[in-house]
Structure formats: C-alpha cells, structure tokens
Predict the structure of SMP-30/Gluconolaconase/LRE-like region-containing protein.
Amino acid sequence: MKKFLFSLITLLAVLDLAAQSGPEIITTHTEKDVIPEGITINPVNGTIYVSSIALQKIITINKDGSHKDLIKSGQDGFLEGLGMKIDAKAQWLWVVSNKKQDHWYLSCVHAFDLKKGVVKQKYILKDTARHLFNDLILHPDGKLYITDTYDSSLYEVDPVREKLSLFVKDSLIAWPNGITYNANGKVYVATYSHGLMQLDLPSKKLSPLKGYTDSTKAYNLDGLVFWNNNIIGVYNGAATNKGNAIVQYSLNSNGDGITGEKIIDKGNELFHDPTTAAILENKLYVLANSYLGEYNANKESAVGISDQLGPVTVLVYELSRNVKK
C-alpha cells in the first residue's frame, strides 16, 4: 500500500509539473505595426482572429502561424479594433472598434460574415462625450453586451431588432474592460474602479465578486474568459512585463464568490502588454504582445517605432482545475 501511495503521489506530481510546463507558442509573420488587441477563435475550425488597433483591420491566424486578412484596413468603416466574439451558429464575427475624429468620439459594432468577409450588421455611437467600446459577450439571451470604458456603462445590441442602446450606467462599473458570463448567464465585468463585478441581467443588480487574494491584479484585469466555473483574466497593469500575468479564479457553486486563485503564467519573456484571451477545447489562447505601452507612449501611433514592435504572437496554455486558495 505504501509503495502504491508513493507511486500515486509521484504520478500526481508529474502531472502537476506537466500542467505547469510552458505554453505552446504560435508565431506569425504579420506586420510589426499591427498593435493587436482582441482575440477570438472559431470553434468550428479552430481559426484564430485578431483585431488591429493601428491598422484598423482583422487578421485570421492558423495554428501553424500562417495568416491573412479577413477585412482590409478601414473596410466598412472599421476603426481601431478591440474585443471580438464569434457566433458559431451564424458564423458571424462580432467586433467593436473606436476612434476620435475631430471633436467626435466614434464607437462601432460590426458583424462580419466569416466566409465572405462582408458586413452583416453595423452600429455606430457618435458623441462629443467620451466613449470607448472595449469588449463584448454574445449572451445566451440572444443579445450582445458591450463594456464602454470611458462611460462607466454597458451597451446592449439586439441583433433581431437591430438596435443599439444603453443597458446600464453605474459608478460601480467605472472603467469597465473585460466581460464574460457563466453557465447560468451571470455576467462578470473587470473594472479598474471596483475590481471584478458581477451583474444579474434581469434586475441589473451589480455587486463585487469577493474572495480574491491579490487586489492589485483583481483591479487591473483586461480580458476575461469563463471556463469550468473559473474566471481567467489577463493582468497587464504591472510596471514592467515581468510583472504581467494570467490569473485563474475558481468560483463557488453559486458563482458569486471566489474560492481559489492561481497564476497560470507571470513575466513570460514573450509578454509585451498581453491583453485578451479565448478558450477552445480546454486550452487558453492569449494575445501576448499588443505593444500598447510603446504605442501609447508614441502618442497612439506606430509610426517611427517599428524597431520596438514585432509580429503577432499567441500563447496557448493547457488549463487545469487545480486552483488553491
């Protein structure tokens, strides 16, 4: 029995080490000045899609790193691309983009046909007040919910009625960023003001998601994904990329509290302002190198800094439920 227990413990240790091994690296030969921000994956064929801020386009990437454009720069009024999600049934790619033009703030929502690259629906919010559509979810209720970082709000798109409208505006979600939801439809929002927040859609009730151990990370998350009753967030608020990380939070059975927290990766040498992530078949795909630090320091321009930038890199992690408090 002792020998069996020793063997079992050894096996579990080996499996745990395997789960902690480095991620798979998908390297590409895209332009250096993409400044990628959003990522999503088509569950039908595994194709990766990445949005570009600087080039205002969407790129498709295969697992071997080969790539091509889904849409060209500025096609159909596409602006600086951020969050994306795929409607697997319709084979539509929903994506948000923004740009300031003169004294106007423009925020757009596009739905592109993945087979033809043509626009199927488009919504525009034009205002002299600041807006920034940042990330979105395709909720089981059939609607899209979009974080507006500058407006402390969530917007709603009803694709059936083809209507864009304000859903909720509240100081509890000031500076919202990533957004995701669980199997029961509960929505989670990453905010820079109150950390992780939970939202009940029918009542529009907002409340903090408590139980995290590292408040610095919880208050500085970018992209969020949900997997097997876990929230996984991309932390990019560190002073240097050595401090940036991928954080996994396990939840209780009600989905209203955190029961465990672990670091999936921290300070990866390929991190250059990681932003968002996507899930496919128990694997986490992380957009590793947005170069937003360099881009923002250059007055939100990639011109003249190509020597500081690089092609798109995606890191792929095997996920594990082994999360301890």
